[in-house]
């Protein structure tokens, strides 16, 4: 009896628990509706995600297409290049006869390069310069176009150019950015005898004869020395409505087959530096130089000579032959600091005196803050036959990019 009663109690408890755990029909309907709502929300979210994925795919495909088009057809700006250089100078010099001094600061040059690649074989290059910071009436400076030419490849290792270009003479005439040479000021020989920087208008070809042996040949406008003038630097016309009655011819051979060594020789011939005014006077310039780099030591040496055909003193007495040379050893103490010394001598002065040469000794250092940014300081001692040479210090900062 007790066992039957216990079984009945347990059975009643199980039934009660089951009835308590089982939801009513209304509760079950509410649960089903809630689950259907959640399913609808999930479907809507999935549809939004699918739309976003499709939109992302469209944007990605458009981006890839644009990149492919850019790589296949580069924009004009990607083929145009810009660069330039500049240099600020401070000079503190006294004349040998104590009659004058020079203490001045000058932003000597501000230059901008612009180039454009038309095709794999045709290109353009230009160089626009402002000298002495301010140009205009009664101002010390000038605005000059030093280069503007079209160059094209004729064949492998051979090219031609036409327009306004620097002549292939000397060491610094074509490469004269301030971080590429020693000394605040450019050397006197290339400045006064060659005379750098020297550009003309015409046409030229260049190429490689064999490995390490190259040539340059050009026909171009030439000097014009008016009556009473005899210095080549005064005869530069800078291709500004230049007299072109008589053209000049320039050629150069350069040897660079040995690493660190450059040997070159240039010749220029002009039949009439008077450009048809009065009796014709021919002029021939010969220049040769060596630039040798071995480890941290460098040596530059250059000789230049002008010969003018003047049998009846159409050129000032003693100026029918003008010469100059310099020697410049230098040593790179580190990547940042280099020391140099230079001895130069040039004679482009007129007169019947036996000695009309100008001698100058320069010593100093360059400090490269960056390979393309340089600070310079040097001391110069200049001697002239008339005791008008200047001695003192020069300092400068220059850059190129």
UniProtKB/TrEMBL annotation:
- In this protein, which residues make up the domain named Porin? 73-384
Q: Which portions of this protein are annotated as coiled-coil regions?
A: none
Question: Where is the signal peptide, in residue numbers?
Answer: 1-20
Pfam families, per database record: Porin_4
What InterPro entries does its record include? Gram_neg_porin_domain, Porin_dom_sf
Tell me which UniProt keywords the record has, alphabetically: Signal
Protein name listed in UniProt? Porin
């Amino acid at each position: 009896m007790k066992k039957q009663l216990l079984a009945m109690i347990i059975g009643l408890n199980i039934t009660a628990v089951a009835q308590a755990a089982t939801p009513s029909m209304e509760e079950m309907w509410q649960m089903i509706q809630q689950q259907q709502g959640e399913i609808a929300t999930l479907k809507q979210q999935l549809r939004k995600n699918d739309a976003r994925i499709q939109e992302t795919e469209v944007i990605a495909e458009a981006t890839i297409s644009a990149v492919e088009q850019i790589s296949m057809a580069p924009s004009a700006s990607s083929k145009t290049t810009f660069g330039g250089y500049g240099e600020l100078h401070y000079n503190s010099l006294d004349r040998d006869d104590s009659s004058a001094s020079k203490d001045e600061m000058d932003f000597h040059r501000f230059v901008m390069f612009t180039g454009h690649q038309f095709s794999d074989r045709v290109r353009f290059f230009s160089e626009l310069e402002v000298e002495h910071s301010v140009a205009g009436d009664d101002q010390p400076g000038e605005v000059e176009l030093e280069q503007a030419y079209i160059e094209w490849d004729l064949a492998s290792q051979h090219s031609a150019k036409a327009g306004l270009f620097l002549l292939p003479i000397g060491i610094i005439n074509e490469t004269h950015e301030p971080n590429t040479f020693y000394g605040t000021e450019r050397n006197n020989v290339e400045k006064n005898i060659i005379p750098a920087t020297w550009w003309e208008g015409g046409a030229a070809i260049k190429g490689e004869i064999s490995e390490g042996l190259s040539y340059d040949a050009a026909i171009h406008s030439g000097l014009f020395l008016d009556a009473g003038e005899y210095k080549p630097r005064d005869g530069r016309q800078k291709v500004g409505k230049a007299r072109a009655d008589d053209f000049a011819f320039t050629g150069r051979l350069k040897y660079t087959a040995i690493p660190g060594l450059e040997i070159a020789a240039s010749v220029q011939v002009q039949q009439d530096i008077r450009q048809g005014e009065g009796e014709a006077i021919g002029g021939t310039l010969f220049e040769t130089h060596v630039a040798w780099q071995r480890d941290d030591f460098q040596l530059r040496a250059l000789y230049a000579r002008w010969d003018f055909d003047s049998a009846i003193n159409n050129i000032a007495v003693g100026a029918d032959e003008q010469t100059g040379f310099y020697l410049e050893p230098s040593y790179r103490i580190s990547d940042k600091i280099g020391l140099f010394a230079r001895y130069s001598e040039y004679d482009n002065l007129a007169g019947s005196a036996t000695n009309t040469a100008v001698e100058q000794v320069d010593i100093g250092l360059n400090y490269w803050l960056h390979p393309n940014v340089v600070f310079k300081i040097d001391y110069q001692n200049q001697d002239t036959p008339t005791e008008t040479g200047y001695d003192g210090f020069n300092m400068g900062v220059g850059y190129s990019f």
